[in-house]
Amino acid sequence: MKEKILIIDDEREIADLIELYLQNENYEVFKYYNGTDGLNCIQNTILDLAILDIMLPDINGFQLCQKIRENYHYPVIMLTAKSEEIDKITGLTLGADDYITKPFLPLELVARVKAQLRRYKRYNQDTSQENDILVHSGLVLNIKSHQCTLNEQPLSLTPIEFSILRILCEQKGNVVSSEELFQQIWGDEYFNKNNNTITVHIRHLREKMGDSFEDPKYIKTVWGCGYKIEK
Hints:
The chain is α/β, with parallel strands linked by helices. Helices cover 43% and strands 20% of the residues. The protein has helices at residues 12-24, 35-44, 61-71, 85-93, 106-126, 159-170, 178-186, 196-209, and strands at residues 4-8, 28-32, 49-53, 76-80, 98-101, 133-136, 139-142, 147-150, 153-155, 219-222, 226-229.
């Protein structure tokens, strides 16, 4: 069964080129040149991955990413013509899994698509072999259903945030470095990621959990080493 990929980009040449490369890899592609039509596809189609341009004439990519994360956990890759760090951080904070700056090599984008799908499928396969529930001080992670609650209140987490929290809970009492988190979450992807990526996800997790950076109850920063959840 072909994996279904959504492309939303108002630059027709770029959208058409991405479509061609992905179809050559045997993906089923849904392509739109504006956010409104793309949103309709998001709401009515079972997808495996979305590629969203940030700058669109109607609904921007950040808003579309938020809409996806209200109901879905599949990977989101953001396309941006800007290289400013704030755009990348904003995308990650809103739930994007990766970003790529224009201009880019189509083969690199294809590699990132494959890597994200591989990570997503591996995560879903691995959960059947793990304990179903992780519990720590009011925090409950249901591995199979990908649901998280804190003090019986639901937490809406992105797949990356859930994975980080899961790893830290499984390694409770041990320090987990950013490099270890990268390896366990993204696997053997060859492209480099910005060092801020894990920091952004950790910060967003703390915000959602109401956790303090200065006096954390859950995620503690061990300077120069990594992060841990105390036993």
